[in-house]
Design brief:
The protein has 172 residues and is of the alpha/beta class. The chain folds into two domains: 28 residues; 141 residues, Glutaredoxin (3-Layer(aba) Sandwich), CATH 3.40.30. It has five helices and seven strands, in the order αβββαβαβαββα. It has a five-stranded mixed β-sheet with strand order 5-4-3-6-7. The protein is globular. 28% of the residues are buried.
Amino acid sequence: MTRKLLPSLLVLLLSVVFLHARQAKEPFDAYTKVGDPIPAFTVTTGDGAKFNSRDKGKVLVINLWATWCGPCKEEMPRLEAEIWQKHKSNLALVAIAREETDAIIAPFRKSNKYTFPMAQDPDRKVFKLFASAGIPRTYVVSKEGKIVFQSLGYTADEFGKLKVVLEAELKK
């Protein structure tokens, strides 16, 4: 009896492993790619300003993040110092907090002394335009409204690539 069950159990085990591996990959699917037009959205920052992704004429940096996200917390000081403080007169930047409200974002922003614009996305309405899961996600958008860089997660190397692309776009 055990010998008859073994092949069936093995097939069942392999099926479960395959399905789990497939599901683990799918939640991080991106809905955009470099070269695509930026999805259309408008958010209101905590300071009351409107940010429209389709406003052309300036390079845009869009960061999708959350206050509880470790990699996001690593990336944000660099966004402040190396992107916002260095280029704020030449670009538009917004950090959109997934599944969070201004009541959570404002104290986080203040305690970390961030000055770049932040907006809420409590229902993932904006986030769902870009991906199914996974943060931080950072995008650089050309003056013509095309995505020229996108990343998932944070590493120093990836942030270096972001800076190279951004600086090239700002020179155009």
